[in-house]
Amino acid sequence: MKILLTFLLALSITTTYGQTKADFIDCLELIFNDPKFEPGLQSSMDVNGALIIVNENRMLNRNNSSNFQQILNSLMQDDFYDSSHNVRVVNGDLESQGIREQSVLQLFGGGDETNILLRISMVVAFESMQYTWSYNLIKVDDEWEITGSSVDKLRAVVREW
Question: pTM (2 decimals)?
Answer without folding.
Answer: 0.79
